[in-house]
Amino acid sequence: MAFLMADVDPRHPHPASDAAIVARLRAAGCVFAEDEARLLIDAATSPGHLESMVADRELGLPLEPILGWVQFAGLRLDIDPGVFVPRVRTELLVIEAVALAGMAPVVVDLCCGCGAVGTAVATTLLRRGVTARLYASDIETAAVVCARRNVGRVGGDVFEGDLFSALPPRLRGTVDLLVVNAPYVPTDAIAMMPPEARDFEPLVALDGGGDGLDVHRRIALGARDWLAPGGHLLIESSREQSAATAALFAAVELQARIVRSDDLDATVVVATAA
């Protein structure tokens, strides 16, 4: 429960008023300063806590880890400092994966971060009477710790390691839906990203190498071994890179197509095993 602004503890500094918080956030470059101020006030447990959160946001820390949660695909998911924050555009992965799901699918969320995509897919399917067997993996320890809380709520398992090597060997050849939000930002473009991503999210979750496709290439090389017959790999890309990403999967004899959502400003490559 949020504290009342009138309940001031003289032992801790406090931002004095809602307007003062908005002004500080706006001065720090927050475009939606009013909305962010309201969220921070609602989340605060004391004036000192509020001051700490506002100060962190002024330093450029992403809002979601400060709050401890992120809204994604209609779910409120845990998010910790130092973990990649899922973007709204990534909801296209969820939409497309759910549309392709059969009964009792085996779902793997590769490069899972906080586990947002896999958790959203499994939750959406469960609401439709379909129970997915969900597995997720990430190379970052902080992401795995966070993902275990989210994925665990839908009965899934999370493993730490590099791409497919993290997964239990028994899953080889059984995966119906392989959902991936791997890094695809070209190395030279990292410097042009917003500071809250560039400075506070793990580089391994952003940097896709010289052309942005280094991790996509590695996934393409291993995907066929893990997909079940008729299984689908869905991977986020950019509008500019999607044709090259699709070609990587076509080269390993997966049937690849590109899905675009202008509403979400999102692009997904779907690659299907014969």
What does this structure look like?
The chain is 36% helix and 20% strand. With 274 residues, it is an alpha/beta fold. It folds into 2 domains: 18-59, no CATH class; 82-272, Rossmann fold, CATH 3.40.50. The strands form 2 sheets. A 7-stranded mixed beta sheet has the order 5-4-3-6-7-9-8, sandwiched between helices.
Name the descriptors.
2 domains; Rossmann fold; seven-stranded mixed beta sheet; 9 strands; 274 residues; 36% helix; disordered N terminus; alpha/beta; two-stranded antiparallel ribbon; globular; single chain
Instruction: Give the terminus-to-terminus CA distance.
Output: 53 Å
The CATH architecture category of the largest domain equals: 3-Layer(aba) Sandwich
- What is the count of distinct domains? 2
Order of helices and strands: HHHHEEHEHEHEEHHEHEE
Shape: globular
User: Which strand order do you get reading across the main beta sheet?
Assistant: 5-4-3-6-7-9-8
CATH homologous superfamily placement of the largest domain: Vaccinia Virus protein VP39
Rg on CA atoms, Å: 20 Å
CATH topology of the largest domain: the name is Rossmann fold
Strand content: 15-25%
Query: How many helices does DSSP assign?
Result: 10
Reported for the largest beta sheet, the result is: 7 strands, mixed
- The parts where pLDDT drops under 50 for at least 5 residues are 1-14
